[in-house]
Every structure is written in structure tokens, then in C-alpha cells.
Protein: Class I SAM-dependent methyltransferase
Organism: Igneacidithiobacillus copahuensis
Amino acid sequence: MDLRKNFLDHVKNGLNGHPLPLRIIFWDDHSYDFADEPIVTMRLKSAKIITSLLVGSTLDVLGEAYVQGELDLEGRYQDILAVAEGLSNAFPKKKSSKTGLIRKALHSKSKDQEAIHYHYDVSNDFYQLWLDRNMVYSCGYFKTGEEDIDTAQEQKLDHICRKLHLQPGERLLDIGCGWGGLLSWAARHYGIQGVGVTLSEEQYALAKERMEREGLADKVEIRLQDYRDIPEREYFDKVSSIGMFEHVGRAKLPEYFDVIQRVLKEGGWVMNHGITAASQDDEGGHHSGSDFIDKYVFPDGEIPHLWRVVRDMAGANLEVLDVENLRPHYAQTLIHWVRRLEAHKEEAIAMVGETRYRIWAIYMAGCAYGFWRNWSALHQVLAVKQSGEELTPRPWERRYQYVDNDPFRLAEPEWGDL
């Protein structure tokens, strides 16, 4: 049977009469419209893609074909991704051959450093093209949804500092400190003494130079260091970890939180901000699109569900105080990033090449769509170290996080004559 006809029949049968606003142009310039007014055009450059689609995971195959230049796409990203999702529904679901046990074994110090080097040591200049002015590579915080990326990221930095109730002179450890955005903000606006650790040589160099340039070298120390190698006797008042624990591995989470508990003073607070699986079923295995991310974007990355995060924090004597889901905020952040990357397309390609540009563009657009569709979530989890006989008082309410000069009322019950 003709491969092209077999493919078209397969898709039409899978769609069950539902229109898909897609035009496919084949390698011989023949075309087919799945709806009267297609808004997305997909140009296939060889029959190889059809064979792959019939046997592989649809979103992974399309992503890889786009990166390799075997497929061209025309249309708005949100339309392209909606059409790709519709197209994937026409094919039976296929599970990845990878297993959680294999992936869990990869999180040694050397493998983690290798994975971080692949993703973050691309080029500081490349990231500066599309990140905000503070070089923050994690979910922004929107109050209206209409803010620009610079404002959203500064709101996020301040939101974290407020949640941690940072005070002048406190020692703050930032695990996975990136280019130093949070530590710079906390030192300038909250008067902390900070330490940041990263495995990225590019981030380390720029963050260290930044602290010197901003006159913060005596307040903030940047280290090229694995979080597991933070000295045993180093104690901090507060710990932040923003967009980092996705690299830890689910099996390593108890060790990760144990390290935080070890370096945190009794009664000290920790804020863990990271991507989480939207459902428990997604946590244990692969879903469509994840093999592409594993191969091209985040080698060895693993996304836990919120239940695992809270359980493993509790196992390290970290009492959870506050949980906030910022899922819509990350969709909006990624939309800003991909628009800015597209605006600097020629510069980006000149810096990192066409292939890497395509990887980052389709990855960020796909993640924006995934967060919008609730395929992934983003949780900030605030906790306090409670390992002694005398428990540290906690705030009665959240108002201190949002209102300037609001008194920090501690929850200390009055027993009276009881």
C-alpha cells in the first residue's frame, strides 16, 4: 500500500471526523488539508518521518524531525502545538522503552555535572538574548498577567524573599544559584549574607563577576560546587532552591532534603521552587514529548509529583508551612521567552547554530503549551526545620508575604488555665 495514503487514512480514521486545521505538504509537493481553512502547515521532507510516526511517540517524533531539519512548520506556536496534540490523538499511545530504574541510577555527581554542563553552559550571551535583565531562568510571578518579563521576574525574586521572611544579616544559601539573580536581589534589598552554588562553569563565572560589578563581593560568595559537597558544619538561616531539584532525581530527593536539613539552622526556613508532575501517573514514567526533552534539553531530568516532595521534606524534619502552585505563571513566562528568542533568531543561530536554536524554540513553546494544558505544574513549597524538642513558632497567616510592613505575628498559642 502507498505509504502516503496509508498515513492519511490512518490519521483520518484516528480523528473520527473531527476537523484538524492542518495542511501537510509532502516531499513531492503534493498536499492534503485536514480542514477547510488550515492554520498550520507541516512540510515533510522525506517518507522517513511517516514511518517514524507510525511506530513512535508522535510529539517526540515531530520534535526530533523539526530539530533535524526534516520537517518545517508554519503557523503560530500555540496553533502548531494544538495541531500536534490533535495529530498525536490519531495514533495509539506508545510507552517509552526507558525505565525509571535505569534513569534513577544516573544521578552521580559526575553525571549530574555532565547534564548541567550540556544545558546551561551553552553560552551566557545566548541566554542574555531572551532572559530578563536579572538573568533569571525559572518561572516568573505575575500579578495581572500583563507584566513584561523584567517586572515578572523581579516580582518573583521579591515574592521568594518575602516568603522566606529574609532579615538583614541572615545567611542565605541558594542551591543552584544560576547567574546570581536571587542572591543579588536579596543582598541589595534585604541585606542578607549569601552563598550560591552551581555546577555550571558559565553561570559561576558570570555570577561571580556580577557580584564584583555590583559591589556585593563582600556579601555574596559564589561557588562551583555540588550541593552534596557543602561543608558539614556550615549553617544557614534560610535556604532557597529555585528551578534546580528537577535535576536531582526522584530517588535522590531524600538525600537532597537531608543535605538542606543538615546545613539549615534549627528553626531555619527553606523554599523549594520546582516543576512537578501534574499527576502521579506521569511521575513514574514517560509521556508523549518527554523523550525529546530527555535527549535534547534536560538529560537525566526527573519530575516528581508534589506528594513525593512533601513526603521527603517531612522525612527530613522539614515542616511544610505553605504550598503555592504557579502553573499558569510558568506558561506565561515561557511565552515571553520564546517570543524574545524568536525576535533574536538570527543572533541566536549565529551564536549556537540552527539546530540548538530549533531545540530551544520548540522546547519552550511546547512547555508553555504543556503548562497551559496542565500537563505539568510548578510548586513553591515553604518549610521550616523542626528537629528539636522545642518547636519554632510559625506565622499565623500569609499576610506578611504580600503587605509592606505587616507585622510578623507568630503562632504561639496561649494555654491560659487549660
Notes: Residues 101-386 form a domain with the Rossmann fold fold (CATH 3.40.50.150).
